[in-house]
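re: ur question from the group chat, yeah i did fold both. here u go
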Amino acid sequence: MKITRQKHAKKHLGFFRYNFGVREPYQLLLDGTFCQAALRGRIQLREQLPRYLMGETQLCTTRCVLKELESLGKELYGAKLIAQRCQVRSCSHFKDAVSGAECLLSMIEDGNPHHFFVATQDQNLSLQVKKKPGVPLLFIIQNTVVLDKPSPKTIAFVKATESGHLFSVHQKQNIKKLKEEQGLVKTSEPKKKRKRKGVSGPNPLSCLKKKKKVQDSNQSSAPEKKRRKRIRNRNRIKALSVPSVRQSEEVQSNSVH
């Protein structure tokens, strides 16, 4: 029985992988009802789900699911502990929280681009999920986890894409990537935002004191003394020479007499 269940799971996973690009690690969105059923059936989700899906899994939930479990009180305390151990995926309900079912439905809108699995025991939520193509559905029956077969809505969508009338999100992404590789689509470069200049203060360089010029090592540190040029006064020399000549003449005249 276990081998047959894994064969069906492998077949369904191959369908979602080929047509919708579902890949590892599989992201499983858990609600409160699924956590409560796993607690009652003593199912070790972190151990059994990777074996059943034959791949790496990530157990996820949302803030709305956690708040819903908190509001329900002590009866679902164990389910709340299981949900708190899961990774919390951000939803669009930051201010006003909604019900867990409504939040999970919002996470798989627009063609389920993040390839979420939905794990729930809520029948109404399961019917809403089956109306959205490309969303794998998990539930617990007889204390075992089961991957539901593709819904009629999903099969009809795949047939429409094969006939060329519709394109899935995965196919659109592949077509866009091929066009970019072949240069058919111009990839727009992100524009750089100009930085606004704020009120600038004084230039710090202008506030610095001026540095004295450093003299070359060849030049001596002490200033050179200027040499005085001796200028001869020619008129004074002449004036001194005239009386000496007169004295010599007088000496000669006296000697004659």
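okk and heres the other one u asked abt
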Amino acid sequence: MKLRRTLLLCLAFSTAAALSAPARQAIAAEPGRVYQFSPVNQYGIELTASYWNPIINYVSEKTGLQLRLKIGRTSADTTAYVLAKEVDFVFTNHLFSPERDKLGWRTLARRNTPPIYGQIVVLADSPIRKLEQLADQSVAFPGPEALVAYKYTYAHLLNEKVPVQVNFSGNHDGAFAQLLSGKAQAVGANSQLAEGWSKREGKPLRVLWQSEALHDLALMVAKHVPEEDAKAIQRAFVGMAQDPKGIKVLHSASELVKLPASTVFISSNGSEYAAYRNFYQTAPVSLR
């Protein structure tokens, strides 16, 4: 197997034999079709896989379609898969720029989590209390594709004329590892992930700045996926909230990454993501 500095994690499930023919037809037109699913690397690879595998297992069982988890070593690597048209479904906010809008990805659902914010944070016991104190210091970011954690936060630093040393760490866990080790003095973060890391690790954080409120990432489908399969996948994700087994899977996954216990997937037509698209109208050219 070729390693392109990426890791392919696959989980395929086929339950056609366990479902009655009418049930299979009601959920998906062609059971057994294989699709690649690439969520952005919000956590380390192991934790990302541990969160998503039970969820796509459930969706595969419900639809008879086989979802395979495909993630790269970093969030930028995973997005590269998407841009290379190697995947069919994504969980991301990396596709709302004017150029990527043209690729035809369509929003199916999102999580009903509280609003998220781009934040610049330091450890609670850090002597740094103002953004100006970060001048010429190292600031860790998940990666260059991280819209909320990098582009929103770094745009603010540029607008405030606070020069920093940009340190890309691959994902949020990597960025916070840099902070703990002292190699970085601050982190540009997604507030949801900063809060989850703080709870998992027992390390309180201080917020120096945060952006406007934004919606959580989007579950999206590529334009080449047949409509009946896209709808089947959407129904399965959204239907987890009404199925005791689905609720159990979501509760376990949410506890793992410290999301609210009430977190479920809800339908979306993408209109909630106007703020992301508006960002690119005024962002520094280097971040568009």
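fwiw on the second one: The domain at 6-114+215-287 is CATH 3.40.190.10 (D-Maltodextrin-Binding Protein; domain 2). Confidence is low (pLDDT under 50) at residues 1-29. idk if thats what u expected
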